[in-house]
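To: structure desk
From: M.T.
Subject: fold request, one chain
Message: Could you run this one when you get a chance? Sequence is below, nothing fancy, just the single chain.
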Amino acid sequence: MEPHPVPQNVTTFQFKLVGDMTLKQFIYLASGVGTAYLIFLVVVPHYPIFGWPLVLVFVLLGVAFAFLPFKGRPLDTWVKSFFKAIYSPTKRVWIKNGKIYRDDPLFKSRLLIFYQGLKQAAAEEQPAAPPAIDVTSLTHLTPPPPQPPSADLPTGEELKKTVELAKEAQALKLKIVQSEKALAEIKSASAKPSSVPVDYTHQANKIISDLQNLITQASDIRSKLDIITHAETGKVISEGPNLPRIVKVAPVPKPKQQLALTTFPNVINGVTSDRLGNYLDGVVAVIYDKEGLPVRALKTNKLGQFSGATPLPNGVYRLELEKDHFKFDVLQIELTGQILPPLIITAKEVAVS
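Reply: Done. Structure tokens follow.
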């Protein structure tokens, strides 16, 4: 099989017209060398100190523009890009319908207005403080009289008897531990082989008998302590304090009033909800002027409320709301310098496919 030719970029292909050089390279080289030759003829004979450096500079420039690319691009491309960047305009003016919007103060501050609306919506999303309770509507309750000191506390004799029984129980516990330790030593000694047999039966029987007596005494002391403790607890529980009965009085309900979201004129505000009356949070509300430019971008809080941060000039505006799975009507509002009441907006649910 014959090898396929290597693909080449035909659109940027340059023919080599003068030897191995293209016409463009030949022109750059000839311009540099020709200028250097003219300087050699005119300047060098009279001013050799200035002439020879100029000759070298122009020769090197001609060679560089013809054969030395920088980062894959010829030097002429870099020079053209430099002058184009210097003399190209750096500002653009948006003209729509024959009107220059840079003269409109709202157009210049549109980004600031947008961020102020977002900050206002974020501040309104914070949970509100709990409503204050009207203390005057509650029934005044008389505090109960101080209770006399309880007479069911244990007496001094009972406390003394309890302490003595506790000391006896502690001593018996120590003797039981010592007896068990001695019995364990006898068992270990009898298990060891010895040349002379030793009988530990009498000693072990005595320790076991003493241990049984100590356990019996400890059980008696524990029974006495339980009797004393249960008797005192029964006294305290059987006789409770006579507390007065407290009657709960519900506060008088106040008539429901509509909450004002702003006190400034020409501030568009409102409340969004669904058909069931549930507030919708996260609804994006965008206000457009009569030219179709967005002048406010708001977002509802958890109570479905939205309100602008700064007043708008008088005129006609269009309010559009958007939220997933809901549809809202487009509202047209005319501002005349008055304080606007909240707009009650009910969404239309859209079936999710």
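Reply (cont.): Residues 16-87 form one domain. Let me know if you need anything else for the meeting.
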